[in-house]
Amino acid sequence: MVIVGMGGGISYAVALRFGRMGYQIAMIARNEEMLKAFRDMLIKDGIESEYYLADAGKQTQLTAVFKSIKERQGQPEVLLYNVAKIKDKNILRESIGSIASDMKEHVGGALHSVKQVIRSMKKHNKGTILFTGGGLALDPHPNYGSLSLGKAALLNLSKQIATELSYTNIKVGTVVVKGFVQAKDLKYNPSSIAEEFWKIHDQSGKEVSVVEY
User: How many domains does the chain have?
Assistant: First the structure.
């Protein structure tokens, strides 16, 4: 399993959930110190993992890192794209350049990541592509204008990819998290959200592609 945008919340919980089911984890992010810590924590849980450094908004870096993953760990069977550029900035203060730059991370990196795994998935007619969505896609807020646009675009992309791959056995799904993720929250804790990703992956068919959670 490849996780693009590895962090200490949802993505780490997903790594634990899939890792405990036998998946080795490939983690992609920019912070090496953080990634080393996650790798050590996963190893203590008996989960094999490796980390790779890349900026999700830079195509050449993503291409190179996926090449390394395939060489070291084999072809990915599951992809989770969990990248979000979170900033409290009103939409009327954004510019063409800032929106375009953010979109590279919000949706451009997602598309390019999918393109890195799709050939093998089609060849074997199996695999799962997952995206971390957000409630701002459904209920946008002007103070988080760029992120609202990004999550809406990501949800749109997920639906397009699901349609494009409808003739295959490849599963495509988004968990639209409509609350604030906190460890102590009964619903919006990372482990509960990770379970929703597992359900999409583990379903017998492809009936569920979007979970509004």
Answer: 1
